[in-house]
Amino acid sequence: MGSYDQKILKVLAEAGTDGLSIQKIVYHVYNSSNTFFETVSLEDVHRYVRQFLQRNSKNKDSMIESTGVRGVYRINEKSSDSQQLMLMFSDEVQEAEEKKPVVDQSLSLF
């Protein structure tokens, strides 16, 4: 699974049942992919996201489904692949919460 694929799926998982429009997904992927040392084209990201969503929402058992609103997609909760995906993302969130640093609240001597 490519880097863009993971970012698209993560954004859709965070969006929940309402889903997100293609344009918002494109901006999330674009912003998370651009760095100081590596820049990507917005048009290339838009093309990839659009093709990915169309390709992965064709049948009823696909991981992604259209919400019924033109250009808005969400994770298909009925798909077995998407249920596994949601478990992976929930594990990542739990691990991130467990790794929060302990804040030193002791008083300074100076």
Your description of this structure?
With 110 residues, this protein is mainly α. It is 53% helix and 8% strand. Helix 1 (3-15) crosses helix 2 and helix 2 packs across helix 3.
Would you summarize the structure shown here?
The protein has 110 residues and is mostly helical. It has helices at 3-15, 22-33, 42-55, 80-98, and strands at 20-21, 64-66, 72-75. It has a domain at 3-77: Arc Repressor Mutant, subunit A.
Order of helices and strands: HEHHEEH
Report low-confidence residues grouped into runs of 5 or more. none
Given the structure, what is the number of helices?
4
Q: Whole-number average pLDDT?
A: 81
Quote the beta fraction.
Answer: 5-15%
Structural class: mainly alpha
Distance between the termini: 53 Å
The biggest sheet amounts to: 3 strands, antiparallel
CATH class of the domain at 3-77: Mainly Alpha
Strand order of the largest sheet: 1-3-2
Outline type: extended
Rounded to an integer in angstroms, the radius of gyration calculated over CA atoms is: 18 Å
Helix content: 40-55%
The counted number of beta strands is 3
CATH architecture call of the domain at 3-77: Orthogonal Bundle
Please describe the structure with a list of short key phrases separated by commas or semicolons.
110 residues, mainly alpha, Arc Repressor Mutant, subunit A
